[in-house]
Amino acid sequence: MSGRPIKHSLTLQGHRTSVTLEPEFWQAFRTIAEEKGIALNALAAEVDAGRAPETGLASAIRVYVLRHYRAQARPAQI
Question: Of 5, 33, 73, 76, which one has the fewest beta carbons inside 10 Å?
Fold first, then answer.
């Protein structure tokens, strides 16, 4: 890992919020947004809408990234 988490501002439902993630998670999250053809804020809004109220947004994004790449790593089922 490259070190300290980095804080970025996102706009969710018209409101600015800050999220702190490790650089590797930011890069992976950006890559997923690009693969889906949507803006980073739009992907963050999807994650935000699907998280439990007691789960922080940064944690929800980390889990989203992990699940995304785990799903890609599974072999195709016939």
Answer: 76
Tokens of residue 24, six digits:
């590797």
For residue 21, what pLDDT band results from cuts at 50, 70 and 90?
A: very high
Could you tell me if 28 and 65 are in contact, meaning their C-beta atoms sit under 8 angstroms apart? yes
> How far apart are the C-alpha atoms of 1 and 59, rounded to whole Å?
17
Query: Residues in the chain, how many?
Result: 78
Max Cα–Cα distance, the chain, nearest Å:
44
Residue 1 lies in a domain: no
Domains in the chain: how many in total? Answer: 1
Question: Which CATH number belongs to the domain containing residue 17 in this structure?
Answer: 1.10.1220.10
pLDDT tens for 29-51 read 999 999 999 999 999 999 999 99
